[in-house]
Design brief:
- The structure is a single chain.
- The protein has 299 residues and is an alpha/beta fold.
- The chain has one domain.
- It contains seven helices and 14 strands.
- A nine-stranded mixed beta sheet has the order 1-7-8-9-6-2-5-4-3. Strands 11-10-12-14-13 form a five-stranded mixed beta sheet, with no helix packed on it.
- Helix 1 packs across helix 2.
- The chain is globular, with a radius of gyration of 18 Å.
- The N terminus is likely disordered.
Amino acid sequence: MSTGCTTAWGSRIPRASVRQTILHAVSVFEALREPLGSCRAERSGILNRSRSPLLILISLAATPVRLLAQDPRVELDHVFITVRPGAEAEIAALRSAGLTVDSMVTRHEGQGTASVGVMFRNAYLELIWPDSTVSVEPQHAETARWFRDAEAWRASGQSPFGLGLHRMPGDTAALPVPVELEPAEWLEPGAAYELLRQPPDSLAAELFVVPPISAVPSWIERLRERSPELLQHPGGGDEVALVRIHGPPEHEPAAFLVLRPARVEMIRGSEPLLELHLTGGDRGQRVDLRPILPLVVVR
């Protein structure tokens, strides 16, 4: 079990309701600000903080407008896969593929989920699952249902994936898609999560932008200093070069067609599949973790 501060993995929920959990990045950011001895207590305190109910809707257009080819304004921050409760088989599969999975399970009280993570120098992969032993608050019942449907993606038809993005350095202008801004008490004034799910995206992969203070570049060096073992993978692979998500048309979020984030591709396929392309490993190696996980690791 890791003794570092940054072993709490939490995912953004897939609905605009006020959340009772935190993003993985926020857990890391907050924990790394504290001395090592207070990490566990601080993490628990963060998970139980209340949320502001204020959600500001920015409707820039009734539907996203396609842009001419241009440099991307957002890029991959992290990706999650919704898996079966406990994730024992899935965690074992990741480790068999030569990936280091943090042994600390984070419980998202109020949301009814738990998760673990796999860290890289520029992004992370998260496994998240519905957990019947974790409380669900009434205002988050819809969120809990979303994760149950995502976990049962083979029967429900919902995408099991979620994409967290962050903006490119210096980019602060409004995005050219409808956005819901969700502020939070742990963020600096004016900062907020940008929720990109559109009404037609009922089965689509989750898509959102984390603010700079919570994005991977803001805390990865502290993770490297305090818990370097989480960034060392026996099978190789230092950074995420590309995430390629396969799936039917209804799994592609409308905003993705406009934003075209860097290091992320979505292509049509008959069933959900995530290709995780890593740098720093054996070139040409492919590890297919199906049917346990809809994941192929490429080095």
